[in-house]
TrEMBL record:
Catalyses which reaction(s): ATP + H2O = ADP + phosphate + H(+)
Cofactor(s) recorded in Swiss-Prot or TrEMBL: Mg(2+)
Sorted UniProt keywords: ATP-binding, DNA damage, DNA recombination, DNA repair, Helicase, Hydrolase, Nucleotide-binding
Enzyme category, top tier: isomerase
Protein name: ATP-dependent DNA helicase
UniProt keyword ATP-binding, yes or no: yes
Domain DNA helicase Pif1-like DEAD-box helicase span(s) in chain numbering: 4-137
Family: Belongs to the helicase family.
GO biological process: DNA recombination; DNA repair; telomere maintenance
């Protein structure tokens, strides 16, 4: 929505059509809700500020005068590759600015009734983990769910689950080819999701949802032996030049990863 690439080293204002589309998108926006804000770091907060101020054309107040509400639990996952807003370690100028923006938030509402987790013992484990006060009894509860402890039938329930690792070096080969499937089944009219940023300024970003319109092959090429030369798709978030203005399509070409 904000066309932000958190990995970029040079964060600049949008220009041309991208800037115009951003302004139109926020023309009637007054309230902004940010969920899971523990994962929004200082640098990201600074970039969000810049984008919304540009969208509203007003730089005199935080977020262009919009009312911004943060939702989440600050004891949950911290941001990836960014500095948490509660950190006091030495910060770059951009990250310091993001922390100052965060410090400007006023008022807080605490929700004290847990809705999703009914197991009292597991609730206590989660609270202790969040506060950094893990006891031996907490460890024993977690250990009871180790893959080496549960039955084969129980393990099979999680065979397609997402694997989380603390470091790149510990992930082994589970993430080879950057998570690409060795075989991917596609069809016209099926829904797809981008797994990486392609063209952030016009909305082709990681997580964008689209629909396949056509699958194109070279002459004398055909599935499943040959891969397509391009997949013609339609994305609601795309605001760049279309391949077909009537169908509002954009081509995607295959990439190889190892």
């Amino acid at each position: 929505m904000l066309c932000i690439n958190s990995k970029t080293k040079e964060f600049e204002p949008l220009k041309g059509k991208a800037a115009h589309n951003l302004e139109k998108k926020f023309e009637k926006v007054l309230f902004i809700l940010v969920d899971e804000y523990s994962m929004v770091g200082c640098n990201a907060m600074s970039m969000i500020q810049d984008r919304i101020q540009q969208a509203k054309g007003f730089y005199g107040e935080d977020f262009g005068g919009c009312f911004v509400y943060l939702f989440g639990d600050i004891q949950q996952l911290p941001p990836v590759g960014d500095t948490p807003v509660y950190s006091y370690k030495q910060l770059s100028s951009e990250r310091l600015r993001g922390k100052l923006i965060y410090n400007n938030f006023q008022g807080a509402v605490f929700l004290t009734k847990i809705q999703r987790q009914k197991d009292a013992s597991f609730q206590e484990v989660l609270n202790n983990v969040g506060e950094g006060n893990i006891a031996m009894k907490d460890y024993k509860i977690l250990k009871s769910r180790f893959t080496t402890t549960v039955s084969r039938m129980e393990r099979d329930k999680f065979k397609d689950a997402v694997h989380l690792y603390a470091t790149r070096s510990s992930k082994g080969t589970i993430d080879d080819a950057e998570g690409l499937y060795p075989v991917l089944y596609l069809a016209e009219k099926c829904t797809i999701m981008l797994k990486q940023n392609i063209w952030t300024d016009v909305g082709l970003v990681n997580g964008a949802i689209g629909e396949i319109v056509h699958i194109l092959y070279e002459d004398n090429w055909s599935p499943p032996e040959d891969r397509p030369v391009a997949i013609i798709c339609r994305f609601r978030s795309f605001n760049g030049p279309f391949l077909d203005n009537e169908l509002k399509t954009v081509p995607l070409v295959p990439v190889s990863k190892s």
